[in-house]
Amino acid sequence: MATVAHEILSHIYSRIVSPQVKELRKYTAFSNNVYGELLPTFVSRIFKELELSSHQVFFDLGSGVGNCVLQAALETGCESYGCEIMENAAELADKQAVEFQERLKLWGIKAGSVTLITGDFLKIEEIGEILKKTNLVLVNNYAFDAELNGNLVNMFLDLREGTKIVSLKSFVPPGHNITAHNVESPINLLKVDEREFFTGSVSWTDAPGKYYISTIDRSRITKFLNSQE
Ligand SMILES: C[S@@+](CC[C@H](N)C(=O)[O-])C[C@H]1O[C@@H](n2cnc3c(N)ncnc32)[C@H](O)[C@@H]1O
Prior knowledge:
This protein is an alpha/beta fold and about 230 residues long. It has a single domain, classed as Vaccinia Virus protein VP39 (Rossmann fold, 3-Layer(aba) Sandwich). The protein is built from 8 helices and 7 strands, in the order αααβαβαβαβαβββα. The protein has a 7-stranded mixed β-sheet, covered by helices on one side. It is globular. The chain starts with a helix and ends with a helix. The structure holds S-adenosylmethionine. S-adenosylmethionine binds near residues 35, 83, 84 and 122.
């Protein structure tokens, strides 16, 4: 399925996004809105590794032009959500979603539902509700500052046990251990596994790099607290 899915997504992207690529580059340099994309082969690998399936929910926080949202719905049949703050990227995402439905009809293919939300994911209440039922969260936070990454971790407090979060920067500093001083910190919810992506996985460099799979795991906090009794 991945090959047909990539073909369909690439047609949609060429028609809707490619002619507007200059617009996408109009972000403030070194801001949280620096634009870059995870490429379809890498995204397929993430879905496969984390076994995203048709009865599950996917959420891309900072979904840009909606590529990963559409890909999740098409490749896995899951319920797929995205939220994007930049108007021009969000408009392209909406246009891609319309073209997506037309292409699906043409190919006679069914996909999961797609919901694209425009605005700040930190401020939209509905997102907290959707996150409660989400199985896989994607955050391409490579260019996010420490404050935004910290605010995201606070949003993860409501996620269910076992929910996976894929990110390009870890939310947990290397060597972090739970101690009496930091036991209240929300980063203790996250069990982090570092992985490597290959060359050609992201739009901003050809170089290989690292990505992180965090799992919501409250058992380590419980274990620590029990050990203190
Ligand atoms: C690097 S792009 C990732 C696009 C897409 N998820 C991908 O990986 O291909 C990150 C996006 O997050 C968006 N973003 C940053 N802060 C946000 C916020 N508070 N609410 C919604 N979107 C945000 C940026 O505008 C940018 O488009």
